Amino acid sequence: MNLPIYLDYNATTPCDPRVVADMLPYFTEHCGNAASKDHSFGWMAGDAVESAREEVAQLVGASSRNIIFTSGATEAVNTALKGIATANVRKGNHIITAKTEHRSVLDSCAYLEENGCRVTYLDVGNDGIVSVESVENALTPDTFCIALMYANNETGVINPIQEIGAFAKEHGICFFCDATQAAGKIAVDVNRDNMDVVAFSAHKMYGPKGIGALYIREGAPGINISPLIHGGGHERGLRSGTLNVPGIVGFGKAASLCRQEMLRDSTRLQPLRDLMEEKFLNEIPGALVNGRKDRLPHVLNISFPDTDNEQLLLSLSKYLAMSRGSACSSNTQKPSHVLKAMGLTDEQAGHAIRISLGRFNTAEEVLFATDVIKKAVQKKRTAFAE
Ligand code: PMP
After folding, report:
1. d(Cα 219, Cα 217) in Å, to the nearest integer?
2. Which atom of ligand 1 is nearest to the CA of 212?
3. How many CB atoms lie within 10 A of CB 290?
4. 82: CA distance to ligand 1 center in Å?
5. pTM surpassing 0.90?
6. What is the pLDDT of residues 121-147, one digit of tens each?
């Protein structure tokens, strides 16, 4: 067993070696610019991009002409929210989102608030889930967008997306979904789930970092997204800049592998996650799972009372790589806004760790990690009691 064991797949996943193998020629011999129309290098790059676009689209049940490549989910989220708001200045100025969203959504909403939008940040229950009823109650005649995530990055909790999407559709409101943690892990389908605009990212599904996608439904209500980045008119004018061909090829391969293997991966990982959880709950008094009802199969967010999470992770860093929550807001050093929205106090949130398993974790690694964590918590708590 190689140490430390990586258990932070929600932060980012290792690139699958099959993805890397497909990408490599596009750094060297297939070096063309996908927008070069006058030679075979350009044609080859262009064809590779379109095949990848097809694979990425298929992963979420979309048509490839509705997929735009971006630099990641953060850019996709920014393009979506700012674009939808610009397109709707005459229709209304109200957005419904939730307190547990990723910072890319919350900070884009804060920016829009500074520019005249009104934003409702929905509360969640202590299960971390946004209720359809709370969305219905927040609706105003000025609401032009509902922006809610598919699955939460810190807890893995899954929102009732299909129902919320149906509600948005019924009221002619644009439904934007940040599906970054769900795409490639569980079945996501833009039509079944009634989603109008969807953001996701390659590096959460065993693809490379620095490439993401935005799905935009044609003819959906209030959708006329304007670009954040202007230039050569790439990606139907919505995202200018020379395409990251190796990244896109890798994203396509990663999406195709996830489509074929995600069920197998989750069927293998869920019992390992459950076993780990059961052992913690049974053997560490007071251990508490944060968000347990509807959840991604590979994620466990758990609090160990009287255990400082930062110290625990640091003391285990020789053996395990886990996290306190979102890597994207780790520089703020504040207690998790997600756990606080679920009703945890600052102190309780300071006891929580996130374990996110993935394709390359073995059963042996998970059992080892369970044992090491259990011992470290017990040791720290004994020290605390002394
Ligand atoms: N949304 C969610 C739910 C995420 O987990 C992340 C990544 N932590 C992002 C958006 C941002 O993705 P990217 O790193 O591709 O910009």
Report:
1. 6
2. 15
3. 29
4. 17
5. yes
6. 999 999 999 999 999 999 999 999 999
